[in-house]
Amino acid sequence: MTKLWGGRFAEQTNALVHRYNASIGFDARLYDEDITGSVAWAEGLAAAGLLSADERDALLAGLEAVRAEFAAGTFAIAPDDEDIHSAVERRLTAIAGPVGGKLHTGRSRNDQVATDFRLWVMRAGDRLDEAIGDVQRALADSAAAALDLPLPGYTHLQHAQPITWGHWALSHFWPLARDRARFAAARRSAAVLPLGAAALAGAAFPLDRAALAARLGFGDVTANSLDAVSDRDFAAEFLFAAALLGVHLSRLAEQLILFSSAEFGFVRLADAYSTGSSIMPQKKNPDTLELTRGKSGRLIGHLTGFLATLKGLPSAYDKDLQEDKEPVFDAADTLELALPVMAGLLRTLELRPERMAAQLEAGLLATELADYLVRRGLPFREAHHVVGRVVRLSEERGVALTELGLAELQAISPHFGPDVAEALTVNAALAARDLPGGTGPGAVRAQLAAAQGRS
Ligand code: ARG
Q1: Is 104 noted as a catalytic residue in this protein?
Q2: Residues 122 and 44 occupy one common structural domain
Q3: In terms of domains, do 69 and 116 share one?
């Protein structure tokens, strides 16, 4: 068998070197993008007068035949196939005859692979956008189902102030909205056509690059052929968007792992989204969530590894760039499983309001007491100090904040009045925070409506 570039070589490639060099094992999944790019290229060559109409039609028919073989799973990869580009060209020439050898006119695998990969990233971005949107819908549905359900809010994982389930669930919605914007930006970076750059200096034929770009769904053509064959910013941007999405999913997973523990018990995972222990019969493990938390490490690794690959590259194409595909493929594959699993887990999550209520202790209302004094004219710093003394008294007496009598409060500050009891409730604490973005019931309703308009 001969290689695409075999002409100047007298010796066969060492077998290990062939394996080392070959990317067909992972880039075969670019077949559809590769053939779509080649179809447009054949039409461009014909439009530029470099192919007759008959030659063009023979190439198009041959390319569609190759595509059909891949789609049907009948394409036989030959031992000498180096990558998807050489494999498609070999098979095309076998089907269409010597005219197959004309397809590569004015083109290099350097601008070809960049085009294929950009197309793939654009399509993957579209699929991920859909999958992220579904997790957002699951979060919004969960919020809607228990919008006003109170639970403790935490900072430093310590009881802080009361919030509602609706507010909590939607707090995980907005990071995903930003993730979608980041994937959309990566897609725009990808949608710039490198074809016409050829190996590095540009094709020696008057091809209409703008027409090619429009035909392939790209928004623009690259401005510099050297940059065109080595620019992988779109892949790095995609990997960053994937890594940060992974971080967001990991944080959601971590919080649900905590919430599903015996200590919190705020939620129960459905059996279908949990796993058992081989030795402890009572166990129901949140493995799905732990995997999502764990896989965020792998997504971050793909980004940092790929940036390291890029940083030392001299001008134009270097074979290092073949290392671009596996991290991007794996990041997309990882998320295309993690996202629907998370959506399903959220949709089957059981809430346990009684367990949340049991944790709504009076300490969560200490800030209410300070805000109460502020409404009565006390500077906040002073109010904070007064309430600190109230908290200490309640601890000394071993009673809850809400169980102290008015006389005891007034002994600490004369600003306490008989209406203090009304301010010291979970509902009052929630209702007070009704400004946009707050956990108050009206604000969370407005937030939900905004979220539903965005997912
Ligand atoms: N398989 C190669 C890649 O993925 C295609 C480009 C090869 N170009 C070259 N000059 N060897 O990057």
Answers
A1: no
A2: no
A3: no
